[in-house]
Amino acid sequence: MLKKNFIKQYQNNNxxxxxxxxxxxxxxxxxxxxxxxxxxxxxxxxxxxxxxxxMELRERRYYKKPTTVRRREKQLAVREQEKKxxxxxxEDGDTKLRFYTKKPKVKxxxxxxxxxNQKKDK
Length: 122
Description:
This protein has helices at 2-12, 15-18, 37-51, 53-59, 66-92, 108-121. By secondary structure, the protein is mostly helical. The protein has one domain (2-97). The longest helix has 27 residues, at 66-92.
């Protein structure tokens, strides 16, 4: 749950997207108090997530072409706009909503092939 919330928060926050790994990301450090390593490790993990280092590493794991990044951002924007439109219609009380789904498969094409095979057999 915490990871999902952080990812959403990270995606909404554009400041991390502009930054690079080596520039101005805060250095994470933790002091071990009273020999409690587990507590220090827990704090360290939380601080690395909050600082944005992990998300930056995940983004940079594979190279993404700039056109791919732009296309993905555009797709997300379109999806978000459609979502807002649908939610707005629901709030207004519109009962006729169209959700774009895959087109149904045409059954006639498969049956035509079977009929042709049956005619050849006779």
